[in-house]
Amino acid sequence: MRLWAALPLLLWCSLAAADARQERAARDDFKVGRAAYETGDYQLAYDKFKESFQLSHEPALLYNIASALQGLKRPLEAAEALRSFLRLQPNDPDRPKIEQRIATLEEEQRMIDEEKARAEAEAAAQRHKQQLNLTPPPPEVRTIIVHEGMTEAERNHRRKVLAISLTIGGVVLVGGAVALTLALTLKSTAPFTMTELGPHPGTR
Fold first, then answer.
1. Which end of the chain is less congested by CB atoms within 10 angstroms, N or C?
2. Rg of the chain, C-alpha, whole Å
3. Domain annotation covers residue 199
4. Residues 55 and 97 reside in one and the same domain
5. 10-residue block means of pLDDT along the chain (204 residues)?
6. For 171, what's the count of Cα atoms within 13 Å in the CB-facing half-sphere?
7. Which CATH number fits the domain that encloses residue 110?
8. In angstroms, rounded to a whole number, what is the distance separating the alpha carbons of residues 29 and 21?
9. CA-CA distance, 26 to 20, in Å (whole number)?
10. pTM over 0.70
11. The domain containing residue 48 runs over which residues?
């Protein structure tokens, strides 16, 4: 009987000791978080305030969590933490101020979203512009680029071929002109017969 009667007392003492250790850990986390917040280390402050809340479930810590999140430029999460605080503390005397703060945080989030969307649009436009610059040029432009990229030996060879072609063409042209001149000369010369007085045209 004594044994059974003693069991509840022993269990209560164990739970009380566990609660005391948990409460002490929650206070320690809160102290570290507050010191971190005061020095501007908002990430550490957020982590410690959150750990303290998970251990103690103290609603006031949600307000501190919101402040740390605001310092981390996470206004939407900060506003949600303040809503959680008001759900647990609906009769808080500062409720109107807290609701105004929630509205301000939501407006800050809206501005952040707009700026993010604008930056993404500008980045997309820049990528599109770069893709256009990488588009292959039309065939005639490619031909020019190929010619400009020829080596000096290739250019000299092309000059020699062009010079030979022009020389041959000139010779053919001159030969044709001479042949044409001779033909016209022979055609226009009148026939003649040699006489005692010399060549006599038109007697043959």
1. N
2. 51
3. no
4. yes
5. 38 55 91 94 96 93 95 96 95 95 95 92 88 71 51 71 69 61 53 52 48
6. 5
7. 1.25.40.10
8. 12
9. 10
10. no
11. 12-131
